[in-house]
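Severity: low
Component: inverse-folding endpoint
Summary: output formatting inconsistent between runs
Steps to reproduce: submit the following structure tokens with default settings.
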């Protein structure tokens, strides 16, 4: 599907980029411990370096001493637009990974008032060298100031960025630690500031998975409202035309609807926002709204992983991040805490509408007594058909082997996440 590349499509993109740059291919190291290698770290915004920023109760904001420059928005209406800006930044302390990592995906939650935006970068170290800074995303919750975007053609001998994922080149020496840098920007001459509440990173290494995993015994189904991506086919070509391309924003919208129905009324767009876009005549307008505000103009799609979780967290009281789980048994722990997940799959899946996908997202909403997966799959022709049950082993093949267990975790303030298991916390 066009909506979001998973692991195999990352490889295809990687080969293309690497052929242009140095002829490298993505890393394929296997976990030596037998436990799939995935780790997630929440970085402390109060530590590190703060040139032009300050960490306070509102999060990371601009301070009084700022740098200046010009950003060229390549996707502005009527052609590239130069925007004079003022900026400050934050650089994390080095974070040591519990294993040599092949991939890194960053997540951020921020408020970006009109006239402001943020930029996230990553630098890694290992084997006696330090990589350059790689751009992971230029982001704003709206699109009135800049167009959110990833950046292509960053590859070198150490690695490259496939849309939102840093990937170590196969021929590169191991990487053992990393730093993140977040730049806060505003239009020159204005007084607003972004407020970054959270920054985190998931690192992983290629791993073998035990499929099927043993069920943890959670038998529960969450009341996640059902939405179809296919009813939006042909909507808004400027945001990738709906249908199969909108599996990610449809899944994100379903989870936001779930939390709204659970009493968190600020979860998702208001009726006033939906009247403004896409308009009162659109059925399930929250899907169109999500597609617009997660859209990555470089990728030309609505499936950028951290852009989806940042969108979800742009609503008051909401949080979101991207990580990798190591089995459906771990997913069961979230369902037991009444937290649905958005999962990325790739491959042949019995019972799936299109039989096979090269990248698709859906919602895990529960588990049957036999351990099979109850989903809200947006790949259906009507909202009422979105509840689909997939066999446990079938699902783990396309999820763990397809995307190495990628999930969006979206939840409100005050809702606890499940306790960690094992030596390397991955949420």
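Observed output (run 2 of 3):
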């Amino acid at each position: 599907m066009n909506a979001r590349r998973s692991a195999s499509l990352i490889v295809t993109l990687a080969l293309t980029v690497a052929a242009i740059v140095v002829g490298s291919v993505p890393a394929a190291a296997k976990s030596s411990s037998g436990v799939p290698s995935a780790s997630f770290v929440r970085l402390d915004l109060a530590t590190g370096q703060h040139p032009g920023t300050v960490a306070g109760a509102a999060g990371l904001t601009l301070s009084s001493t700022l740098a200046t420059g010009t950003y060229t928005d390549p996707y502005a209406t009527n052609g590239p637009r130069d925007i004079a800006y003022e900026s400050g930044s934050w650089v994390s302390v080095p974070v040591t990974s519990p294993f040599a990592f092949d991939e890194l995906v960053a997540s951020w939650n921020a408020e970006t008032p009109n006239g402001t935006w943020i930029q996230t970068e990553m630098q890694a170290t290992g084997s006696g060298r330090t990589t350059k800074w790689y751009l992971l995303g230029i982001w704003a919750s709206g699109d009135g100031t800049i167009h959110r975007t990833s950046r292509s053609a960053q590859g070198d001998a150490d690695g490259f960025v496939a849309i939102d994922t840093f990937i170590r080149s196969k021929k590169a020496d191991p990487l053992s630690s990393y730093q993140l840098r977040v730049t806060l920007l505003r239009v020159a001459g204005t007084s607003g500031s972004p407020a970054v509440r959270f920054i985190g990173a998931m690192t992983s290494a290629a791993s073998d998975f035990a499929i099927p995993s043993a069920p943890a015994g959670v038998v529960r189904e969450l009341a996640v409202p059902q939405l179809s991506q296919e009813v939006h086919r042909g909507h808004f070509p400027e945001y990738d035309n709906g249908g199969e391309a909108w599996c990610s924003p449809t899944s994100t919208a379903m989870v936001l609807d779930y939390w709204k129905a659970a009493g968190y009324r600020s979860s998702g767009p208001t009726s006033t926002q939906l009247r403004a876009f896409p308009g009162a005549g659109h059925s399930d307008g929250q899907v169109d709204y999500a597609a617009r505000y997660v859209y990555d103009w470089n990728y030309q799609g609505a499936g950028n992983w951290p852009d989806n979780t940042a969108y979800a967290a742009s609503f008051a009281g909401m949080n979101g991040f991207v990580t990798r789980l190591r089995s459906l048994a771990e997913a069961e722990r979230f369902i037991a805490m009444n937290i649905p997940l958005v999962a990325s799959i790739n491959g042949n899946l019995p019972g799936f509408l299109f039989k096979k996908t090269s990248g698709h997202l859906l919602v895990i909403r529960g588990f049957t007594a036999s351990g099979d997966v109850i989903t809200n799959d947006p790949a259906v022709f009507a909202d009422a058909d979105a509840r689909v049950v997939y066999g446990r082993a079938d699902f783990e093949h396309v999820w763990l082997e397809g995307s190495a267990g990628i999930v969006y975790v979206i939840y409100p303030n005050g809702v606890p996440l499940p306790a960690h298991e094992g030596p390397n916390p991955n949420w």
